[in-house]
Each structure stands twice: as structure tokens, then as C-alpha cells.
Amino acid sequence: MQFGRSYEEFEVGATYKHWPGKTVTEFDDHMFCLLTMNHHPLHLDSNYAEETTQFGKNVVVGNYVYSILLGMSVPDISGKAIANLEIESLRHVAPTFHGDTLYGETRVLDKWESTSKDDRGVVHVETIGYNQDGKVVCIFRRKVMVPKDNYLEQRGGEQPGRPVPQPDKNWPGPDAGE
User: Fold this and answer.
1) Tell me, what DSSP letter sits at residue 162?
2) Which segments carry the region annotation Disordered (predicted)?
3) Sheet containing strand 136-147, strands side by side
4) Is pTM, for the whole model, over 0.85?
5) How high is the pLDDT of residue 174?
């Protein structure tokens, strides 16, 4: 399975559909709110949401929606990234509710080679997130610095930093039983 892409693998105009989707549970939303100290009653208080908001129920906190979509995009977009350079824009265009399933896809808007280092480049992408009904709920654009193939080759290839299992008394090695 591919995990991220090198600069050469990105094509302007390409769209990557992220899989699988993620169903947002009440627990997920509440835990994220509590971890990030966002105690707004729209997200945590069912009675408040039912009685005083236009939605009539809790709304999933937007930063969690964004985080899910960003995470979904990692295997396709930034799994090999050197750096996330910029979140250019982030728009929440419709609410997400407990029980909704989020899906995402990312389109490559542009790419260019680094002017300071010849072993990397920048990709400019837009990710949209939508629910099980196809309703777009979140849109964001970002710029990611990604390695070129020569950068990866110099650092161990597809899985840089991965150790090699060492034979010992518990495991004699892959060829020991032959």
C-alpha cells in the first residue's frame, strides 16, 4: 500500500479519493472537545442544542471535522511530506452531526520545485469533506513540501528509518528453518 507520494508522482488536476470514511460518534466529538478544552455547549450539551439552536441537536466541533479529513488525506497526499507549510484556507460550509460519516477527496491545484533545495518540491492541494449524503461540509487548501525521488533514495527508499529484524535466541531469522 502506498503511503504518500514523491513530488514526481503528483499531477496537477489529479484527484485522490480517500478511503475509508469515518463515522463520527458522540464519544469521538466529546473526547476531542474535552482534550482541546472546547467546552462550548453546542458540542457538549444536548439540552442546550435542542432548545436554543437552529440545528436542534449537537454539532460536531469543526476542528475535529478538519482533523479527520486531514488525517484521511495523509496516505494519499502527505505521508512522505517533509513539512506542512501552510493551511491557506479552511471553511466549514455545513454542519456535521453525531452519526454522520465523513468522506474526503483532494485535488492537486499546482506544484513547483523548491528554489532553495533541488531534492524537494511543493504541492498545493484542496481537500473537500462530505457526509454520507454527499453534502460538502468542509473545504481547505494547503501547501505541502514533499520529497523528490532522489531525496527518498538517499534516505532509505520507500520506508526510510525502518529497522531490520535481528535474529536472536527467540527468532533465528527468516532462513533458519530451511
Assistant:
1) P
2) 151-178
3) 15-23, 101-113, 120-130, 136-147, 83-92
4) yes
5) 87
